[in-house]
Amino acid sequence: MKKFTKLLTVILTVLLLATFVVGCSSQNGEVAETNELKTEKTVEETGFPLKISDDAQREVEIKEKPERIVSLAPSNTEILFALGLGDKVVGVTDFCDFPKEATSKEKIGGFSDPNIEKIIELKPDLVLGTGMHQKLISQLEDVGLTVFIFDPKGINDVLKSIETVGTLTGQTDTSEKLVSEMNEKIDEVKGKVADLTDEQKPLVYYEVWNDPIMTVGPGALMYEIIEMAGGQNIAADFKEDYPQLSLEVLIEKDPQVIVASAGSMSEPGKVKERKGWEDISAVKEGKVYVIEEDKVVRAGPRIADGLVDVAKIIHPELY
To answer: Which residues partner with 207 through β-bridges?
Structure first.
């Protein structure tokens, strides 16, 4: 009887061990399967690695989600912060002053002449430049840095740039939401001026600078903004992005509305003190306005707000 009891105990022990091993094996299989699914899901959600063409006609590979980003332009900096990526930005130019948080970031020098050594020192895994920085590409890539160039020519290109930054950084949902909000403002302006005749669209002079007199031509963002806001730009027949005018030509064009950057004209009333300007229609009728320059020249998220501001200036009767 004792032998039988001992044998039964051994058999039961073996069975329990077998059950435990099978259970562990099954559990480990489930864990492995879960980890595999998790990995696949992570790759699918982040979209990395990815290859995408920039505005310099280069195919750029982004192997992993960027964690350290250097911006070589104020417009790029504004986009990054608008997408909630401020904590990823490790370097900006001396001119990156919006939002306020950007001013506390490490400086990499000027917009047109960034400090290459400083950029390398910051060890970014993504550098965002503009068309002005194409000559720097090889210098940065030679030390293993990834460079992406933006060179928007119009408002639609600005919207595309924002979406692209979202793709490059894994912030597609945020970028799509921002672009949608911007499009709502743009479409509202377009709707308000859609039925205006050419006679109802005043001649507009945007002053980039006053000495020499400089305005915006067909290739500038502000030119498109004026046209989209229901105005007619006096420089429509110029080929340069930023043409210079003589006072005689300006008087001959006789703009009905003058919009100036704050740097060029601090107070609208002082334009009357400029010799020869007193007979220009916009000056005589008091239709001279100062606007925040960065909203209409930076290819960033505030461009839609700049459009609304200009539309309210040109057509206050529609607001």
So the answer is: 260
